[in-house]
Amino acid sequence: MQEVAVGTDDFKYLIEEDCLFVDKSLFIEKVLKDKKQVKLFLRPRRFGKSLNLSMLKYFFNIEGATENKELFKGLKIENSPYFSEMGKYPVIYLNMKDLGNTYEKLERNLNNKIHRLFVNFNKVLESDLLSIDEKKDYIKIKDSDAIDIPLAVDILCSSISKFYGQQVVVLIDEYDAPLVKAYKHGYYNEAVELLSQFYGTLLKSNTYLQFAVIVGIVRYSKTSIYSSLNNLKEYNILTKSFDEFFGFTEDEVQYVLKKYNLDSNLDSVRNFYDGYKFGDIHVYNPWSITNYLCDKELISYWVGTSKNFLLEDLLKLADESIFNKLKILLNGGFIQKSINLTSALDKKLNINEIWSLLFFAGYLTIDDSKDANNNTETKLKIPNKEVFTDFARIITDVIFDGSSIFEDLRNDILANDFEKFYKDFSIFFEQKVSFLNFVSKTRKTKNKEDSAQNNSESKEGDTDNKSQHSSDKTLSQLETFYHLIMICLGSTFSTKYYVVHSELECGYGRCDLLIQPLNQNDRGFIFEFKCFSKYNIDDNENDEYKKKDLNDKLESKAQDALEQIEDRKYYSYLEQFNIKHITIVGLAFCGKRLAYKKKDLVLENRDYVETK
User: Alpha-carbon distance 397 to 8, whole Å?
Assistant: First the structure.
């Protein structure tokens, strides 16, 4: 049985060590058939971009061609007429990750990369094909600390091409990494100027270029470094061409599951890791599948593999409208948004760019078969259970200040200790939840909407009806905020042991949160919550809490929520799975205050009764 190598992007290592390799070698044929000189492939992280680039390096590299040919024995490309192109070209391979977090470091590390290329191709100095002056120029740059980048790139490519008698193939990994880091640390314009010189010389004005393949996540703005590259062709996750070469297809997943005797778990694997749509096909995250083959654990592997600064930065700007859409997505629904194919980092990011970034970063995918492009609205959803977990984690980290208390709250629930749950939740509200900021943003959003509505209404409209509309809208907005908290809390249960449902249709209505154990002997939980809409942020917060009847109202609302669970028989959903023990909980919120009521129920004679 072949070993599963996790985290290895080196094609040669996988083949020589007889590790699992899902054959994507016809990607090489497709690259050669495509006559666009510079190809940019955009995919989310951990979808095989680096491995594909490594495979191209070993295939085309004229250095080591004889031994590299052995790597492709038995692969699909071996039977292709394009196999004759193997080992034919000198290859320049660059990984643009980790070039530093200041402009000085970026410039120095880029110079170092170019210098290493001169060292690696040092054998060109042995050739009589280069003139004495050309060799002097080459040595001067190789031995220099300060490099004129355009001049260095031109001398390098011309020297390599003359020595080997072939044009140069250029492969660039993580092209966008230095741009994001430059934006984050405040030297974006300087970075663009430097990288424009480098890429312009290497990819556009390079008469020695055979072709180039570049990979990344997002294309950053037509006003950025690629604006002058009229020889660039972009293939993103909306593009049908090359759609099967990044990520695992359904057939490939079925093959590897059967190979490792895990095919009986196909439905569960689909639930966790399927759901992405690239071009015309549905694909799985290869990072997650290979981790699952190795560990045989249906858990979230994508979580924490990388941080997305741009996404987290935008979430900090979220208002009630964004919260409401996040709630819809986390509830398993879809939103309809236009997808912008580029993001402009040369100016401050707009909050509306959040949906495009979520889409290209792999947190959202297309919900239907409708094609999408600029200025066309498309249905978007969270792809699968694994991404749901990471999505909720990011919201928790950014909106709720990275509070670890969600883990404490989960443990309180699992222990059925709601006294401690109440104390921990109170601490969470007091210390972590920026409730007043949310209400302020909500109020601004509501005032704009109310103003627009009032302008469109008759001057003789019913004032009381407007007031009621405003009150209902405020209540709905606050419920969105609290519901988002509860969904993030519920996401901590999204493991192989539980299934989490939000706004699930069950009994005679929809419950706010239902935690279903997969083992019928474990305890299930059902939550319903109520909230107050009257919370004036212009008043002193302590005065609001000092109202004598607030606690009584909270207790009453919590009781109403508990009775709603019973009256509408939300627990009937768990009954069908023969879950023996459940706890139903009513929660009431007002600002940062809360109350709870609970009951423990046991299944007897096909009905739940209170535990005595």
Answer: 29
CA–CA distance, 556 with 569 (Å, rounded to integer) = 20
How many residues in total does the chain contain? 612
Q: Which of 292, 303, 297, 296 is nearest to 362 (CA)?
A: 303
CB 124 within 8 Å of CB 163: yes
pLDDT at 382 exceeding the cut of 50: yes
Q: Using CA atoms, how far apart are residues 575 and 582, in angstroms rounded to an integer?
A: 10
DSSP state of 532: -
Cβ(53)–Cβ(39) below 8 Å: no
CA atoms in the 13 A half-sphere facing the CB of 119: 9
DSSP letter assigned to residue 369: S
Structure tokens at 290: 């290979």
| Per-residue 3-state assignment (H helix, E strand, C coil) for 323-363 | HHHHHHHHCCCCEEEECCCECCCCCCCCHHHHHHHHHHCCC
What does the alpha-carbon distance between residue 244 and residue 252 come to, in Å, rounded to a whole number?
A: 10
Neighbours of 134 (CB within 10 A): 17
Q: How far apart are CA 507 and CA 512, in angstroms?
A: 13
Rounded average pLDDT over 361-383: 74
Q: How far apart are CA 338 and CA 324, in angstroms?
A: 17
At residue 313, φ and ψ (nearest 5 deg) are -65, -40
Residue 225, pLDDT score: 64
Yes or no: say if 263 and 254 are a contact pair by the CB < 8 Å rule: yes
Contact of 487 with 502, CB cutoff 8 Å = yes
- Tell me, what's the pLDDT at 438? 56
**233 burial via Cβ count (<10 Å: 0-12, 13-18, 19+):** middle
Q: Give me the chain's average pLDDT, please.
A: 85
Tokens coding 326: 């996040």
Rg (alpha carbons) of the chain, rounded to whole number: 29
Do the beta carbons of residue 498 and residue 518 sit within 8 Å? yes
- Compute CA distances 473 → 485, 534, 544, 604, whole Å: 19, 11, 21, 42
* Least-confidence region, from 61-75, 186-200, 296-310, 585-599: 296-310
Select the more confidently predicted residue: 350 or 578: 578
pLDDT class of 353 with cuts at 50, 70, 90? confident
Residue 125 per-residue DSSP state: G
Sequence-separated (6 or more) residues with CB below 8 Å from residue 604: none
* DSSP E strand stretches across 242-305: 248-249, 276-278, 281-284
The highest-confidence range among 238-242, 329-333, 338-342, 534-538, by mean pLDDT, is 238-242
Helix%, strand%, coil% for the chain, nearest 5: 50, 15, 35
